[in-house]
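HUMAN: Would you supply a protein with fold tokens?

ASSISTANT:
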Amino acid sequence: MKKTLLVLAMVLLVACFSVFAFAACNNTDNNTITMYTEAGFAPYEWMSSNGKITGVDVAIMSQVAENLGMKLNIKDVEFDSIPLMVKNGQANSVGAAGMTISDSRKESVDFSNVYAKSKIVIVSKESYSSLFDLEGKKVAVQLGTSGDSIMTDVKGEGYKYVVENPDGTTENKLAKISVNLRQLNDYSVCKTMLEEGTVDAIVMDKIPAEALFMNSDTFKINIIEEVVEEDFGIAIKKGDTKMMEAVNEVINLWLANGDMDKYTEYYIDLYLYEQGAIEKPVAPEGLKLSWNC
């Protein structure tokens, strides 16, 4: 009887702790930063083997939270929903997800200073390096990403790009082709479909592509000739000057002292380690990971 009561008490204690932990992780008080992300974009964010979301964006917002004396609550959502979630969310909401700064997104949110630059690539068994190489092909993209936007334009009214002529003049061009576009919710599904031969190529950002396919002898990664370099920024609720200043303070410091490159390299290596590709990397000195959930 006593043993039964003891077991029952332990079960109730665990249940109470779980409820408390869940409540703490979903706390949205004024002392909590809510970070919306999509945890399938290594090295910027992914679900680590320890069950927590980790990556460059998490490190940035962890440091911001520590500087402000706040907690950090991370919510894993679909990528294309992030700008509206930041716009409609409570105070101190941000979107940190390797997000390209664009005019359309600026209608919903403000953006921090640029913290990374990205090139768009084609991942395929073939050496595709032009949008025109994808004519008639089955192409996978992550919904809401730059790759999605580019390929939607390509198969629709056309993707506008600029060509520089030998004499220094420029010429406006239009890439418009027939393509079988597969818009998926995360890159892991894109990768699986490419490996299975369900699609011929993936159009995506360069750094995550290198993390996903670093050890592949089968697939090639080529920068798309017609697409210019893009800028990553943290999405911030419009008019939240306090959060904007705090985020930019961390970004500016890390860019100036070289920590941004150092931390990005570390998270690439950490992701590869978790895939069994390399030895476990040593975390750089000064890297703080203080998020709560």
The domain at 120-228 is CATH 3.40.190.10 (D-Maltodextrin-Binding Protein; domain 2). The chain is about 35% helix and 25% strand. The first strand starts at residue 32 and ends at 37. Confidence is low (pLDDT under 50) at residues 1-25.
